[in-house]
Amino acid sequence: MSGNKLLLDTNILIYLSKKELLLDRIALPGDSINISVITLMEVKGFAFQTMQEEDFVDALCNLFHIIPLNDNIVDEVINIRKKHRIKLPDCIILATAIVNHCSIVTHNTSDFESFASLVNLIDPMVKGTKSGLSRK
Description:
single chain, alpha/beta, Rossmann fold, 5-stranded parallel β-sheet, 5 helices, 5 strands
């Protein structure tokens, strides 16, 4: 199945930079790959071990669509945080996915498991699955 909207969590960009994960494990042809502006800030502030990793992430960020904060995302963040204890960066990623109808691609599924009824979670690091096959 193609044409899915994916929102990559920060850890996925880091795995990609370290070559611990390949892009073809995440997306299928026709998928839209996005990152939240919070992911951009987190990954750009990450202390990479090599310049090659950092350059690779910079190139990836230039390839993917960066979803900025807007009033709808901010309102969703506020609504979620009023009802649930969740770290602000994770909440911004969650709200971005909800508002933009994206699946969250993350290896830290525990950060979002209690919201699985609101958003699809994809863990491309699980052996034997591919993003197109592991979707609900």
